[in-house]
Amino acid sequence: MEENENQGRKEEMFSRAIRAGKRTYFFDVKETRGEDKYLTITESKRRFSNEEGKFFYEKHKLFLYKEDFEKFIKGLEESIEFVHTGKLPENYGVEEHVEIEIEPLTFEDLG
What is the rounded CA–CA span in Å between residue 79 and residue 86? Predict the structure, then answer.
């Protein structure tokens, strides 16, 4: 039965763990059923539960799809540059908009 449950799931194709102080970051490349690759970035922090009296791991996960890589990398690079230099990027404060082409609605379309 377990085999049937896992048939739709794919294992990581690539995985990298980065330990950084009290946090660990996991970069995992996976594949959708349609064979499109995507990246998950997971931040894991060890925490202590006073109620249960034991440690647990708090995780936050981000899914990043390949069509968003370029914009994500640009935003990350600009943010890192600001941390290092304090200099704002040229386009700071200007939101990027996605243009969607919408066909005009006619009365015939309303039925």
Answer: 10
Q: What CATH number is attached to the domain comprising 39? A: 3.10.450.700
- The count of domains in the chain is 1
* Average pLDDT for 75-96: 88
CB of 44 closer than 8 Å to CB of 26: yes
Joined tokens for residue 2: 């377990």
CB 39 within 8 A of CB 64: yes
Q: What is the pLDDT of residues 16-39, one digit of tens each?
A: 999 999 999 999 999 998 999 999
With a threshold of 0.85, does the pTM exceed it? no
Which alpha helices (DSSP H) does the chain contain, by range? Answer: 2-6, 69-85
Q: Report how far residue 27's alpha carbon sits from residue 38's, in angstroms, rounded to the nearest whole number.
A: 10
